[in-house]
Specification:
Layout: E1 5-8, H1 14-21, E2 28-31, E3 35-39, E4 56-60, H2 63-70, E5 82-85, H3 88-96, H4 111-115, E6 126-131, H5 137-145, E7 149-154, E8 156-160, H6 165-169, E9 177-181, H7 184-193, H8 196-203, E10 206-209, H9 212-218, E11 226-228, H10 234-244
Parallel strand pairs: 1-2, 1-9, 4-5, 4-6, 6-7, 9-10, 10-11
Antiparallel strand pairs: 3-8
Helix pairs in contact: 1-10, 2-3
């Protein structure tokens, strides 16, 4: 396939990192993050988050949940607590901070795959999900359906970004654009907020997504021209792009 530009909707610093990984290709990177992130208040007293006598589980939904969440934890909060991570990047952040991850999904790194982990199918207890507001509702509902008592710690929040005019002006004709999408929220944000003509230009190209579920959503915008990576990380995205070009 022939593409001249790759549109990267990932937030920073992942967007710049991916652009760097593609510097040896002839693709021109167009960075169009949908959101930036800033600390948020957990929304509950973390020192009283657990129900006494119940199994205790923390779930970190992203590397950002680790970065912003660990700053807010009381001393000893994760002692004798099972720790789950949504994927390897999140797990690596926790391990680097000295915390052992005991539950990690296999296959696609998503709420669905985490819910399928055998450690979560029996003996429910008290679960605390570290995420941004509005995120991981499927995970919460799935755990509650299995008898878990679920709370959220909203330790960070997404802040929408208005694209710079010069970035928009740099877009070529749509069929030359390969756009990269790693979240449904970024896809929905740009679909709703970009100028209609700009969005139609992007949709005239191909979409690259990081999960089958996101691929189903992307088909609504670029039917028949959606490609799915082997994983959510930048290396997997780069490898898929190299295969496509």
């Amino acid at each position: 396939m022939v593409f001249s530009h790759v549109l990267i909707s990932r937030p920073e610093p992942e967007a710049a990192e991916l652009a760097g990984l593609l510097k040896d290709t002839k693709l021109v990177p167009v960075l169009l993050p949908a959101f930036a992130f800033e600390p948020g208040f957990a929304g509950l007293d973390l020192s009283c988050a657990w129900t006494k006598g119940k199994r205790r589980l923390t779930i970190f939904s992203s590397p950002r949940a680790v970065t912003f969440g660990l700053r807010q934890l009381p001393a000893g909060f994760l002692d004798d607590v099972e720790i789950a991570a949504i994927g390897p990047a999140t797990s690596n952040e926790l391990e680097s901070a000295g915390h052992t991850v005991t539950i990690l999904p296999t296959g696609e790194f998503s709420s669905e795959s985490l819910l399928a982990h055998p450690a979560l199918t029996g003996d429910p207890g008290s679960a605390l999900i570290f995420a941004a507001p509005g995120g991981r509702q499927l995970l919460s509902e799935g755990l509650a359906g299995r008898g878990w008592e679920v709370n959220f710690a909203h330790v960070y929040r997404a802040v929408p970004i208005k694209p710079e005019p010069d970035v928009i002006e740099s877009l070529p004709p749509g069929e030359n654009i390969l756009s990269v999408w790693t979240s449904a929220s970024a896809l929905a944000h740009h679909a709703e907020n970009l100028d209609r003509q700009v969005w139609e230009t992007i949709c005239a190209g191909d979409f690259l997504v990081t999960s089958a579920r996101l691929g189903d959503i992307a088909q609504n915008y670029a039917p028949g021209r959606v490609h799915v990576t082997d994983g959510p990380g930048n290396n997997a995205i780069r490898d898929c792009i190299l295969r496509l070009i």
